[in-house]
Every structure is written in structure tokens, then in C-alpha cells.
Amino acid sequence: MAGRHDTNDRAHTPDDVVLGIDLGTSGVGVVAQTRDGVVVARGDHEITLRTPRPGWTEQNPADWLRAAEEAIADVIGAVGGECVVALALSGQMHGLVPLDDADEVIRPALLWNDGRTGEEVDEIHRRIGRARLVERTGNPAVTGFQLPKLLWLRRHEPEAFARTRLAMLPKDYLGLHLTGRSVAEPCDASGTGVYHLASGTWDAELLTDLDLDPGLWPTIVASDDVVGGLRGVVQSPVASPTPDPAGRIHLFAHADGTYLLLGVTLAAAGSLRWYRDTFAPGRSYAALVADAATAPVGANGVTYKPYLAGERTPHLRSDLRGSFHGLSLATSHADVVRSVLEGVAHSLREAWDVMEPLAATDRWLATGGGAVSDVWLSILADSLGAPVGRTAEQIGAAEGAATLGWLALGHRSERAARVEAWFEPDPGRAAATTEAYDRYRSLGPSES
């Protein structure tokens, strides 16, 4: 979704830019992107993650606003405000921002990787029926989705629920702050658990069965709609909405009118950050990855399960917990760090094993912070058994948002991502990688 900065219809010049904002879990990223898709400035500001209990994750929406405003100021300082023609939003999915009738935040936001809603997931499946839910929304109820969060609020914080007049997603709350309009779009709406894929509307029938008012959700607009003037971020495309019958892979609406199959590891890059902050404070990610590169494939028998916040694909269980297996007196620091990188790669491979029958994909593009690491991309290529590419420019959700912003202004970019390097699976490491992956699968998940 986009907000227009200049309200007149002047012709756009080569110096004009759209600001793309990505509200992530660890920070807000902002890019200034030209009509041709070139990023000319970038700003990033971190956000604090709160974990009041094991399996719970929250953030203060005020921190989002502060980080966004600071990152926007950095970018505008670099390019100048007069050339900004629009602002477009992308961001973390599934979260719940409950607002009162004055659009004030009632309590800290419950995030996409929050796993407290197991009882509410069971309630939804009991009252709706799991198969019916998958048929209508493309997904079963999942602890991280927004719908069970609202039921949790009703059960455990009834006073806060009684004050709730609007259930917003994180990026849409940021959009409300910037434009004054409360809206949602199909891509994120289809990750709430209450979006009817066939009709493209909130599923009033399901909400009635759960004794919830459909008016709690904002108006749905197209992903490339201009929603107002500014006041003041592993998936595979498919053509038709065909869900995995077991609901192990998410099916969401795509911004371009198609659909996305999405496998989710809740603590992917977050695993390395957790390891650094807990066991190696002060060390850089580059130093840790360099250590991992000295350990052999399979990390000398050490296996890491990345279930620090429960797990989504393919287990759909919030009670799973992370673990190290195979530690011995001979285990080195390099072995442990490599096991973290391999464990994340194996979790993505496990998701792909479920996705593969539904989507034809023979190569991958890596985005995000982990994509800068040759070691991690090599491990990922080996685990997936397919080439993994790194783009020449850092391309992520903020760039996608900016592209949608230009589309909202009537300009479709034909510029394709330029791949800087391809990381091919190494046949010489195939046997050891398969052995490590089989060990990962055989160990099974660990419950809390």
C-alpha cells in the first residue's frame, strides 16, 4: 500500500523516488528507489524485542513509529524531501495491534512468532473445523496468526478486549500513523486466519461462528492502492489458490493477484543472533561465520534444532523448543556455530520437502541479512540441493514496497533482479549433507 506525498499530478522526473518501508522484527528499513528500480539511499533502525515469557514475543508499536521516523529522516536527509513522490509499506505479518475508539494502542503488540495461543487454536479448529478453515482461508489455525491472538485477548485480558475497536496488523498500524487511514491489503490479510481467499473479503461466516464482529477489521484495499496523503516495512509463487491439504505450508494472496506458498522457520537469522547475544557477546556475525567455515559438514555430529519460538512449517506447534544434540568433550566452538547454520538450512529444507509437490522451483534467491554470507548460502544450497543466488543489490521487503509504490503511481518497472553470485550444491558434500539432514529429521522435535 502506498501513501502519496505530492498531491498534484505533475510529471515525474528521473530524480523522483518512492520510499519503501519494511517494518521487520528486529528493525525498520527504509529505501529510496527510483522509477527504474535503483536504490539511491537506505536507512535502518533497530527495534527492541520483548519476551515476557518463553514462547511469547511482543513489541511496543511506539518503537516502530520512532524507528520508522528516524529511518525516513535518514533517507530524506540523503535524497531531499522534494523528490519523494510516495511512500509504500511492507512488514511483519500476523501480529495483533489492538486499538481503542481513538486509535490508541491498548497493549503491546503480539508478534507473528508469538506462541501463546495454543488453546485458542484448538478452539478455532473445534468450532470451525480444520478442513473447513483450510478450504476457506488456505491455512489451518496457527498460533502466530492474528485471529487466535484476538481470542487470547478475549479470554485472558477481557478488559483490553472490551476496549478493542480495531484489530490492526503491524504495517497497517504504521500506515494509519502515516496516512490517517485504517486499511489492510490482501497479502497480509490472508495471513490473519480470517481472510476468505475466494471472495477476497474478511470471512464474516467464520467470524460469526466465533462470536466476533467483522467490524473489528479494517477495510481491505488493493496492495497497490494509494490510501492517502502522508501525515508525517522460503516462498514460491503459484497461479491458483491450492493449499496443502494438511495445512503444513501457508497459502497467501500475492500483491500481484497470484498466490504464494510460504514455508516459515520462526527463528532463522534469529538463531544466529540469539547464539551471539547469549554465548558470544561482542563478536561479529562475520567472525562467527568464519569460525563455522572451519568445521566440517555435519558439524562433527552436532545437530541444532532452531525452535526458539516454537515452529511453524511443517510442525505447526508453539510448544517446540530449540536444542543442541550430539555435544561431546571433543565439540568445538566452530562445530556449534556451524550446527546453528546447518540447523536453519535443514529446517528450510524440511519446509521445501512439503512445498515441492505443489510448486515447481529449481533455484532460489536469498534476501535479508543472512544473504551476505557465502558460507551460509553454500550450506543452504547443499541442504536444498538447488542453486541459491545472491542479488547484486540488497533486495528485500522495502524494495518490494517501493516497487508497489511506483505501480500505484502508474509506473510498472521491468527491471529484474541482477544476481551477483550463484551458490551451487557441491556433489562432494552431498553424502555428508544428506547424513546430517537425516540425523536432523530422525531426532524429532523437542517439546517444552
How does this structure look, described?
- It is built from 14 helices and 24 strands.
- By secondary structure, it is α+β, with helices and mostly antiparallel strands.
- It folds into 2 domains: 2-233, Nucleotidyltransferase, domain 5; 269-447, ATPase, nucleotide binding domain (Nucleotidyltransferase, domain 5, 2-Layer Sandwich).
- It has a 6-stranded mixed sheet with strand order 4-3-2-6-1-14. A 3-stranded antiparallel sheet has the order 15-17-16. A 3-stranded mixed sheet has the order 21-22-23.
- α10 crosses α11 (333-355) and α11 packs across α14.
- The two termini are 39 Å apart.
CATH topology grouping of the largest domain = Nucleotidyltransferase, domain 5
Provide the helix percentage: 25-40%
Q: Can you name the CATH architecture of the largest domain? A: 2-Layer Sandwich
Task: Please count the beta strands (DSSP E, at least 2 residues each).
Answer: 24
Structural class: alpha+beta
Distance between the termini: 39 Å
Provide keyphrases for this structure.
448 residues; alpha+beta; Nucleotidyltransferase, domain 5; 2 domains; six-stranded mixed beta sheet; three-stranded antiparallel beta sheet; 14 helices; 35% helix; globular
